[in-house]
Amino acid sequence: MTPNFGDFQLEIYLAGLNGATPEHPMTFPELEALAEASLSKEIFSYVAGGAGNEYTQRHNVEAFDRYALIPRMLAGAAERDLSIELFGIKFPTPLLLAPVGVIGLCDPDGHGDQVTARASAATGVPMIASTLSADPMEDVAPLAGETPGFFQLYTPADRDLAESFVKRAEAAGYKGIVVTLDTQILGWRPRDLGLGSFPQLRGLCLENYFSDPIFQAKLEKSPEEDPMAAALHWALGFSDASLDWDDLEWLRSLTDLPLLLKGICHPDDVRRAIDGGVDGIYCSNHGGRQANGGLAAIDVLADVVEAAGDTPFIFDSGVRTGEHVVKALALGAAAVGVGRPYAYGLATGGEAGIVHVLRSLLAETDLLMAVDGYVSIADLTPDSLVRG
Asked: d(Cα 167, Cα 156) in Å, to the nearest integer?
C-alpha cells in the first residue's frame, strides 16, 4: 500500500509505546506560546501582530468554522492523493510556504530563509521566498534541492531594481514570480508601533537589496560601510504607491515565468488581472497584517475562484490546521499557503520544527479527507461543504 501523509500519526503513537512524545507542539496555540517564549519581543510582535485591533486577523481564522465538511461513506479511501499540478509542475502536496518578511530572523542564527529552503527540500512543499530576506536569493534557492520554489516581489519604486530582482530570481531557478499588491503602503500595526520596532529600518532582512548592483549604485557608501544609510535608502524607495492597473503590462513584460498577483480579493480584480496576462491569482489579505476591518479571506474565495475560471488560484490567510486546508481546497483553491505556523515552527525547532508543522498539517488534511470519504483533492468541491 502506498504511504499516506496521515501515517505520521502512526509514527507518533508507535514512538509513544517506548515512552517518547513529540518534541514539538501538536496544536497551533501551543506552538504560538512556545514561539513567543523563544523569540524577541520585537520579532514575535512582527510575526504575530496584525493591523488595527486585529479583527481581520482573528476573523480570518474564525470564519473557517462557518464551513462544515459533509462526510461521504464507502469511498474506498485507503489511499489518498494529495498531489496537485501548478503551472505544469506536479507537486506532492497542496501546501505552500507563504512569504514571511522576517523569516530569516525567526532562526536563532539569523538564516531562517536558508533553513526554510532546506525544510522545503525535505518535505516537497514549495517555498515562496520573500523579497525581504536575511540571505540573498542566490544563497537560498539551491538549498530547496529538487523542490521548485517561487519568488515574491515587493515592487520597488526603482523599476530598474524591480527588473533586476526578477532577472536574479530567474537566474537563481525560481519557477514563478508572485507580486504582492497590498503592501504598497504600510498598514497600521499597533503592536510594532508600541515597540517602535520595524526590523528593516535597522537594516535587517534587506540582503536582496544590499547584494543588488542596481541598489548599490545609488549609495554613496556600501551597505557594509554604512548600513543605516542603506536602510534609509531602502525605506524611501521600498514601494511605488502609485502602482495601478496600467502598470500590469510592464510587470508582465519583466519575465516569461508564471506571474501571479497576490492580494486579490474581488472578482473584478481577478478578471482585470487575467485580462492583463497574469498566469495565476493569489487570494490573500496578508493574514490581516495590512488592512483591518475587512472580510475574512475564506469568505471571498468562492467568488474569486469562479471569476478566475481555469486560471490557477492560490489561497492564504488564517490557515492554522489541516481542516482549514481541506476547506480552502473544497472552495476551489489549487494550493494553500501557510505562514505563521511554519514561522513558529522555525522559531521553536529550526528545520525540524518546520518539517514537524508541515507533516502535521498534511497528516490532518489527509486523515480528514480519509475519514470523510474524499480520496483526492479533485473530490473536494464547493458541494462538499455547507455554510452555517
From this structure: 14
Distance CA 224, CA 233 (A): 14
| Rounded CA separation 258/365 (Å) | 27
* CA–CA distance, 95 with 345 (Å, rounded to integer): 15
Q: How far apart are CA 53 and CA 295, in angstroms?
A: 14
Residue 120: CB atoms within 10 A of its CB come to 29
Strands (E), 57-123: 67-69, 84-86, 89-91, 95-97
Could you give the 3-state DSSP secondary structure of residue 128?
Answer: strand
Dihedral class, residue 276 (left if φ above 0, else alpha if ψ from -120 to 50, else beta): alpha
CA distance 110 to 108: 6
Task: Write the CB contacts of 206 (distance below 8 Å, at least 6 apart in sequence).
Answer: 132, 200, 223, 230, 231, 234
DSSP character at residue 214: H
The pLDDT assigned to 1 comes to: 59
pLDDT reported for residue 3: 87
Q: Which amino acids are annotated catalytic?
A: 286
Q: What is the largest CA-CA distance in the chain?
A: 70
Q: Which CATH number fits domain 5-195+240-387: 3.40.30.10, 3.40.1280.10, 3.20.20.70, 3.50.50.60?
A: 3.20.20.70
Strand partners, 128: 150
Predicted confidence (pLDDT) per residue in 36-61, tens digit: 999 999 999 999 999 999 999 999 99
- Sign of the Cα torsion 273, 278, 283, 288 reads negative
Which sequence spans correspond to the domains of the chain?
Answer: 5-195+240-387
SS3 147: coil
The pTM (predicted TM-score) of the whole model is 0.97
Q: Kindly give the parts of the chain with pLDDT less than 50.
A: none
- Looking up cell 506560546 gives 33
Residue type, 65: D
- Kindly give the pairing relationship between strand 313-315 and strand 335-338: parallel
Question: Within a 13 Å sphere around the CA of 3, how many CA atoms are in the beta-carbon half?
Answer: 9
